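Request: When convenient, would you put together a sequence paired with its structure tokens?
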Amino acid sequence: MAPDRPEFYRPVPTEDGSLTLVHPVFGEAYSSRHGAWMQASELYLKLTQTQLHPSPRVLEIGFGLGMNFRAALESCVRRGVYLEYLSYEGFPVSREVLEWVEVPLSDPVQAIWNGVLINWPTHPQRPLFLGGSWGSLEVRYENVTKAVYPTNWASAIYLDPFSPAVNPEPWKPAVLHQLYTSSQPGAYLATYSVAGRFRRDLHTAGFAVKKVPGVGKKEWTVGRRV
């Protein structure tokens, strides 16, 4: 697990008023300093078209502080659609750290998030699974280079680990190939990184790749399985 007490993490208020944290080992913030909630909504939710899908299946690399899950859940609950969310996290934070990073949520979504916090394991050895009429959340605490991924499953892929400079494993060609085989035809992948080698490897894995204007950050990357 990552360091388990909030005092190990440096809080960073972001430009949209939401909070992110700087990881004490990697030295990087979990979210964009231009806006943690903005990044979850504008990059991961909208660029993968999760907010339009009638029954989204999201595969995420890097659950982190749960910001992307909360944004997807808020969208799906508001629209009344069923969300299936599968996340892989190699460095899970403690429940206390998760509780520290709050965002304004609707009452139904806050109740679901409270259930995530209540069931968050103290020492992750088994996957977290939570489900209900709203959908399901599964968090697998695994090394992404060794994990077992579903096949032809995801309508959207949120690639949101720490950067290739400090956490290179999730960006490796073998993992990107696994993400391709895990996605449905037409599925979108979104990430904040525009590193040239990564984009070439993503294309080699089978995705159609393009850079798009970012918010705060100059550009983001979107891939699509064709």
About this structure: Helices lie at 36-47, 67-79, 95-100, 107-119, 173-182, 196-205.
